[in-house]
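In this supplementary section we document a worked example of the pipeline. Step one takes a protein sequence of length 646 as its only input; no multiple sequence alignment statistics are reported here. Step two produces a three-dimensional model, which step three serialises into structure tokens for compact storage. The input and output of this example are shown verbatim.
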Amino acid sequence: MPDAHGPGANPNVVRLYERFDLAIGAYIVVPLRSRDGPRGALTIVWETPREFLPGDTDFFAAIANEIGFAIEIARQFELERENQRLSHDVGLAEETLRRYQLLAAEARDVILFVRRADGRILEANRAAESVYGYPRDELLRLSIDDLRADETVALAAEQMTAAARRGILFETLHRRRDGSVFPVEVSSCGTTAMAGETVLLSIVRDITERRAAEVVLRDSERRTAAELGLSNALLRAAETLSSSMRIDDVLDRLAELLVETVSGARLVVLLWDAAKGEISVALSKGGESFPVGAVWSRRDIAAVPMMSRLLTDHGVKTLDFEGPDVPPAARRVTARVGMRLALAVPIVARGELLGYVGLDERDGRRRFSEREVGLVRAICDQAAAALDNARLYQQEHDVAQELRAALLKLPDEIPGLTFAHHYRAAVQPAHVGGDFYDLFELDHGLVGVMVGDISGKGIEAAVLTSLVKNTIRAHATERGKSPAEVVALTNTVLARETSAEIFATVFFAMLDRRDGRLVYCNAGHPASVVARRDGAVSILPATSPLIGTFADFPFRNAEAFLSCEDLLFLYTDGLTEARHERGLFGEQRLFDMVGRLCAREPREIVARVIDSAVSFAGGGLRDDLAVLALRRHELPGPSQQKLLLG
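The serialised model returned by step three reads:
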């Protein structure tokens, strides 16, 4: 159409362009056709008027035919794709249905479709029939409340609401057709409508076996916890009981542990002395019972058969003191303290009976549980080891005390001298070391003074100490022998009687109490010191080698003088070698201290020096020490024996 505004113009085209304020000068409309007929029209518009040639219509008609054909192809493609999608959705739905049917048929868990409105069961799988015991047609006439245990029905409405809103997982109890109740786990959620009704899909799992396994697990955990508690208790008992080497301390700690373990019980600890043939009350706790110190002889024990059996059969026993085999006299004794039924637990170490622990309840007939008996027995076993160690330690301590007292025994007094001495072990008090000192009178106003240190510890060192001391004493009494000669003879004996690893250091001197002349031989021993009345000190260093290594070493004398009130201070190296992170206590510190204290009594000087060294070492020593300090006083009369200087 050459003129858009002339006669015959299409008014719809003109209004459309005017609506959007578009210029229109000329336009042409060509129909769009497909194989099935018209599909619309192609409108071509020019802003300015134009003349159409006769061939223009054919040209635009050809274009319209091509466009119509393309539209036809596109419509066919979209239709094919929609058909494929529908076919896929149908296939997916069929696959989903098939899988559900297979799942429902083969699943071991119960699958239920429940109507939300009233809880009616709409569908159920074969597992539901098996688990609940209902045939399918009967099951589909029930509601979910019919499957619940009575005590859980009240929760059904709340749980179904939660399931419809967000899904829920919970445990509850269900009931079978035969009335039996069993635990289940339910996973429930809202699903699409079935036949116009909203339903819940619930998967129900029988958890009877899981609950049983949980019970077994909890029991196992309780047993494990109990065993762990027992192990910890026994470990603590072992640590507590072994922390002391005194019998009284071990017994006190044993009592504390037993009172804590068996609450409300009264206990008595009896110790058996096989050598004396008697049993005694060593400890009593938890109420009035037999007095501590009470003793029964073997004859007393033999009079009560069940008590007599305790000495031969070292097992845990329950003693009934109201039984027919208890003599009237014994019954009166036990009745007086309210003992009717008691548990007797032995204390046995290395097969030897040390005693018994008796547990009871005053005026009662308490029977202790198996766990209490086991725990008490275990604690008593720990106590047996601790008591055995304490007993052996006490025996060693007594022997060591006697041996040390014999080796370090000095006279109570020597005219013309005041003196003090002290021995301190670096380790346990039962220890016997090789440090020693001696002070003894000789003829004609002379005094033998000795301090030494034997290599080694224990009984061997004690034997060698006795050998050295007695050898020096014996040769010192021989007239005319100087200290160097005495030490040389002692060296020969020690070298001949001991191995090459044994040696000793020794300071031996002869002091004339009348004129203060001191002749000494220091054989490898730390320097001794003489403190003057004015505080000045003189050092007496080593003059000769140590003894015990070679028989033919030469030994020499040296000489010093002690004026009246002067102090001679002798010691072993455990004193100067007291160690701290700052170093050693040292000789210079010792000499300065002795000089400052020289006016004080020997006893005070010895005590303060040792306290200072121990404090410097932080309260503990690494080596034994022996100290001897003596002060010379005026003694009238000239010396009648001259000391030979070698």
